[in-house]
Every structure is written in C-alpha cells, then in structure tokens.
C-alpha cells in the first residue's frame, strides 16, 4: 500500500484549508506542549541542583531500560540524529554518567553504557519527571488522558507513513 503524499503538488488548496488556523492545528499544539514540558523539566532539574538536560534525560531513559545500546539505537529511540546523539553522549561522558565500550560480539561497534553515577541518577531524576507529568495532567480524567495518548500514538503512526 502506497503512503499518501502530504504535498499539494501545486493544486489549489481545498476550502477547509483556506481557513486553516495554524495556531489551532494539531502539530502546532503538540509541538508547543512538548516545548513547554521540556522547559519545565529543565527548570525542575535545575531546582533540584541537576545539570542534566531534558535531551540527556531522554538518552538516559533509554539506557535505564536497557543498558549498552548502540549509538544508532539511541538515536532511533530518542528521536535524535546521529550527530546530536554523539554530542549528547559526549556531554554525558563529561558528567561521568555514561561510558563507551566496544561491543562484546563485534569490536567494530561501540555501545554506550551507564556508569554507577548514571545508574544512581535514575532514582533522582525519574521522580522529578514524574512529579512534573502529574502536575501537567492534573484536572484531566484518566479516560481523557488515555484517549489523548492513544490518539497521539495513532497520529504518529499515520504521519510516519506519509511520504514527502
């Protein structure tokens, strides 16, 4: 099955898109929400005297679930490109939260592993992130939150199938 193209191919916009309000669009609202949550998470980490960034936290989260990941895996799971992942891993290494080691089965492959400090950080950062998520979703029913998450996952899946 061929994915639908998001391009208009020079055709006139349909009537419903002529009144399209970017400020009320799903993409804009989701992006804005993610931005605000990243900012608040950064502030919360700083408030608790942590220098970890939300982007570094995303990488650590993947490693806490399964340590010893390849750089490409970290890029895929955290939705970052390889250059950004390299920079983030370098920063985490300077902070002594991770280290790079050759893969046991293929010495050409380098994997990223948590240090003891990196492992211990989970117990400090996850509660901060959880508290923020709890505050951000207050006054939202469990059913509404589940429906929102389910809908957003469907949008992600649909958008992944759109060709440029």
Structure description:
By secondary structure, the chain is mainly alpha-helical. The protein has one domain: Orthogonal Bundle (Arc Repressor Mutant, subunit A), CATH 1.10.10.10. It has a three-stranded antiparallel beta sheet. Strand 2 and strand 3 form a beta hairpin. Helix 2 packs across helix 6 and helix 4 crosses helix 5. The two termini are 16 Å apart.
Describe the SSE topology.
Elements: H1 15-18, H2 26-47, H3 54-65, E1 69-70, H4 71-78, H5 82-94, E2 98-102, E3 110-114, H6 116-136, H7 142-160
Antiparallel strand pairs: 1-3, 2-3
Percent helix, as a range, is: 55-70%
Structural class: mainly alpha
Overall number of structural domains: 1
Structure summary, number of beta strands: 3
Low-confidence stretches: none
Strand proportion, as a percent range, falls in 5-15%
In round numbers, the mean pLDDT is 89
CATH architecture group name: Orthogonal Bundle
Q: What is the CATH superfamily classification?
A: Winged helix-like DNA-binding domain superfamily/Winged helix DNA-binding domain
Give me the Rg, rounded.
20 Å
Strand arrangement in the largest pleated sheet: 1-3-2
Largest sheet: number of strands, sense, barrel closure: 3 strands, antiparallel
Identify the CATH class: Mainly Alpha
Gap between N and C termini: 16 Å
- Secondary-structure element sequence? HHHEHHEEHH
* Total helical segments: 7
């Amino acid at each position: 099955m061929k994915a639908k193209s998001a391009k208009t191919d020079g055709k006139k916009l349909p009537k419903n898109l002529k009144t399209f309000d970017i400020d009320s669009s799903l993409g804009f609202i989701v992006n804005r929400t993610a931005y605000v949550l990243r900012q608040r998470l950064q502030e919360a980490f700083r408030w608790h005297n942590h220098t970890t960034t939300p982007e570094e936290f995303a990488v650590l989260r993947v490693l806490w679930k399964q340590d010893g990941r390849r750089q490409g895996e970290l890029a895929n799971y955290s939705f970052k490109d390889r250059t950004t992942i390299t920079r983030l891993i370098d920063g985490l290494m300077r902070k002594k939260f991770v280290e790079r080691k050759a893969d046991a089965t293929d010495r050409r492959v380098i994997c990223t592993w948590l240090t003891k400090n990196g492992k211990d950080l989970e117990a400090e950062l996850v509660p901060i992130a959880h508290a923020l998520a709890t505050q951000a979703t207050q006054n939202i029913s469990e059913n509404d939150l589940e429906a929102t998450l389910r809908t957003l996952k469907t949008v992600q899946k649909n958008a992944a199938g759109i060709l440029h």
